[in-house]
Design goal:
Largest sheet: 6 strands, mixed
Strand order of the largest sheet: 1-4-3-5-2-6
Bound molecules: zinc ion
CATH class: Alpha Beta
Structural class: alpha/beta
Number of helices: 5
Number of strands: 6
Number of domains: 1
Order of helices and strands: EEHEEEHHEHH
Length: 180
């Protein structure tokens, strides 16, 4: 299979969730679900199901487990609620896992982190988002949004998330493409 920078990474299943109008994406936010990563797809399918039952209008564009299974829960141009007050223009990725993980625990989910990095690379191409750490026009964690805008106290994906490595993967896929 040839590498691509134009086709989206693999989608295991589409499970449309709540959206709140349309927007033009200009930044990406990385979260974690604070739920267990388990073998198979139950972990990743549980998240949109939980949002549906919870019925508060929360959603994210992608939910990705440690093995790299991706559930797409909204079209890119639909607005999802996942950070307080700063959702317009944001594409959200929820990684299955805990904000209390050690770096080693995150690295055990390398396949999932790399799938998320592919989505970031794809979105950077598709929507003209810079491959850099930024809460305004780039890629950032939910914790960085909390620190920058003081509108939420969420610290996901946690202080041990391998951010530098993750951004290196994003840059690599951005330049070299990925296989779908
Ligand atoms: Zn979050």
């Amino acid at each position: 299979m040839p590498r691509t920078t134009e086709r989206p990474p693999n989608i295991y299943r589409r499970v449309p969730g709540a959206t709140h109008g349309t927007h033009v994406p200009s930044a990406i936010v990385i979260h974690c679900t604070v739920s267990p990563n388990v073998k198979g797809v139950k972990d990743v399918l549980a998240i949109p199901n939980y949002w549906k039952i919870q019925n508060k209008g929360y959603n994210a564009h992608c939910v990705i487990d440690g093995e790299g299974h991706t559930v797409k829960c909204a079209l890119d141009n639909k607005l999802c609620w996942a950070v307080a007050g700063k959702n317009t223009g944001r594409l959200h990725i929820e990684l299955i896992g805990y904000d209390t993980y050690t770096k080693a625990q995150w690295m055990q989910q390398e396949f999932g982190l790399k799938e998320a990095a592919k989505w970031c690379a794809y979105w950077c191409h598709r929507w003209g988002i810079p491959v850099k750490t930024s809460v305004n026009h780039g890629i950032a964690t939910h914790a960085m949004y909390s620190a920058a805008f003081h509108v939420s106290d969420h610290t996901d994906p946690g202080k041990n998330f391998p951010w530098t490595q993750f951004m290196k993967w994003v840059a690599w896929y951005y330049h070299n493409g990925w296989v779908v």
